[in-house]
Amino acid sequence: MISKNESFSDALSAEKKVVFVAKKDLPALFDSLWTNGFRILGPTLGEGAIVYEELNGVGDLPIGWTDEQEGATYRLKKRDDEALFGYNVGPHTWKKFLFPPKHRLWSAEASTNGLEITEEKQVIQKFAFIGVRACELKAILIQDKVFLGGEHVDPVYHARREDALLIAVNCTQAGKTCFCVSMDAGPRAESGFDLCLTEVLKEGEHYFIVEIGSAQGAEIMANVPHSNETREAEKAIQTITAKTAKQMGRVMDTENIQSLLQDNFDHPRWDDVASRCLTCANCTMACPTCFCSTVEDVTDITGDHAERWRQWDSCFTLDFTYMNHGHARTSAQSRYRQWMTHKLSAWFDQFGTSGCVGCGRCITWCPVAIDITEEVSAIRENQTAAKPTSS
Amino acid sequence: MTVKQKPKLAVWKFASCDGCQLSLLDCEDELLTVANEIEIANFPEATRAVIKGPYDLSLVEGSITTPHDAERIFEIRRQSKFLITIGACATAGGIQALRNFKNVKDFVSIVYANPEYIDTLKNSTPIADHISVDFELRGCPINKYQLVEVINAFLNNRKPVISPHSTCVECKLKGTVCVMVAQGTPCLGPVTHAGCGAICPSYNRGCYGCYGPMETPNTKALSRRWQELGVEKPDLVRAFRGFNAWADAFRKESETHE
Questions:
Q1: Given B106, B131, B155, which residue is the final one in a domain?
Q2: Average pLDDT over chain A, rounded to whole?
Q3: Residue A375 to residue A366: CA distance in whole angstroms
């Protein structure tokens, strides 16, 4: 939830309170959210993966399931316990709720006075996201900058984000494509949440350490049975997340990454990756921070009614750079370079942050397993092969 | 008050199954509106009444497979102000282009009792190999909503909203989980032109490539991945030799695995 009085990033950094909630009392959290008018969205099993959909109760969570990931591979697997959040991030991102894949912006009717344009009304949505990982939380804060940070606030995003309640979950394990540690984005959710859960399964006990990050979070927790004993909480969270941090399947060396990519514009590695890249756009669609869209105008057959729609687009499509003289980035090489250089370098100039949170989705969901961490390493290790550029 | 002259529509058939032109009749909800805005002047599947050309808009289905058809298409072009080819046969040669990889005479003698009556060309080819085409609508069969969109764009003098990017984008917009990544199912989606709405992956199947190659298909990289998933070369050849076997990118890829 974005506080009315504070800026987004420090809204929730007020003094944190920590409580314990037994697993059996988790349904009360759902009840409390519903009582407060929220729609609960979170992880659930679907189509052979853990996806984000509306939840109708704790039972909809992927209880006892986990996933195994590698480049171009994702498999569900049964756990040998009943963990509720014992898996890594899946194919979906929260942006599908905050920045809908397809959205009508306005419609117009031809009338005797010309065109009558009706803007799409934005209804404030009360979303409660449960199970937001640290990397995803950071991705949401990055998209906040993109859509809300500048002079022009995006009304579609704003209507969905303003009242969104973020219930984070600290990762108790990392996947083989995870590298949030390299991107300083996890595995512990530090701020930006209303509530943050750390799941503990130990010696027959199953409970959650709940960090309260906002007044709204505290209000929700008021109706959830909990104990206030907090002595060992901080230590337990640190132990769990430190263990996760050690399991990162990937590493990205980000030292001087801005200049590294800018100075290696002609590196032969770009041709190499282009020979493997399908330009299918999966990486950008799966990325939690990619925000590009296109607008399309459609008419009905009579021509009396027109609509303008916005939908996700990608720097990997040709039409993305179509201008009156043609397409600006025709080669796969130029498109991959654009995506990666924007994500890891130009994003700093534009938004003061990296565009990558190390969630690993672009690695897992690339059909041919192109690995952004490997591409960075290849450019870094062999910089001399690049033509010198004047700086 | 002047009465608005309705544009005249003609629908033409070459070597094909008729499925694509029937998509127009399949547009149940939109059909009356379409008929209201356009004069169906020559459409034998719909009516025997034929109004003479020239036509404002011609929809051409099917591929060129006979010397007679290779002549007939020129006359149709001459009679059409705007000509749109519809479906994999018209845009890529269709499934019947499989004969292009063999000697057609061998088939003729096997299939027909009196091969001497058959006058056919060596290859089945797309319409655009013979005449200039104003727009190609892909698919086997075409998507009826895309057909309405193309007619609609023509009527309203605008560019049709038809995206040439990969089918993957359609999966991602719908939230469909990638079948290749999550299940190891070989899928042609990354090299296939969008348009069907990613039907097969929505039903847990890999894409069959019915809409032909996307704008910049990297078939080589996809084939490499398929082989890692255990697909053998003969199956790779068959995968690329579907309804769009003669489309350049698919044809070349299938030939490298023969």
A1: B155
A2: 93
A3: 14
Banded pLDDT at A361 (limits 50, 70, 90): very high
A10-14, A54-58, A374-378, B83-87: which has the minimum mean pLDDT? A10-14
Residue B43 lies in a domain: yes
CB contact under 8 A, A49 and B182: yes
Is A2 a domain residue? no
Q: What is the pLDDT of residue A5?
A: 42
Q: Euclidean distance between the first and final Cα of chain B, in Å?
A: 66
Whether B43 and B171 share a structural domain: no
Peptide bond into B44 cis (omega under 30): no
The verdict on a CB contact (< 8 Å) between B180 and A367 is: yes
Read off the tokens for A382. 């062999």
Nearest CB among A279, A312, A369 relative to B216 is that of A279
What is the pLDDT, as a whole number, of residue A10?
A: 41
Are residues A23 and A135 part of one domain? yes
Tokens of B250: 């698919």
Cα–Cα dist A337/A268, whole Å: 11
Chain A 360-379, residues with CB within 8 Å of chain B CB atoms: 364-365, 367-369
Residues A60 and A180 in one domain: yes
Q: How confident is the model at residue A9 (pLDDT cuts 50, 70, 90)?
A: very low
A182: pLDDT strictly greater than 50: yes
Task: Verify that B29 and B62 share a domain, yes or no.
Answer: yes
Burial classification of residue B191, based on how many CB atoms lie within 10 Å of its CB (0-12 exposed, 13-18 middle, 19 or more buried): buried
Instruction: List B residues 196-255 in contact with A (Cβ-Cβ < 8 A).
Output: 204, 214-216, 218, 220-222, 224-225
Q: pTM (2 decimals)?
A: 0.94
* Same-domain check for residues A227 and A288: no
Asked if A22 and A50 sit in the same domain, the reply is yes
- B201 within a domain of the structure (yes/no): yes
DSSP secondary structure letter of residue B177: P
Q: Is A276 on the interface with B (CB under 8 A)?
A: yes
**Domain contains A32:** yes
Average pLDDT on A134-139 reads 98
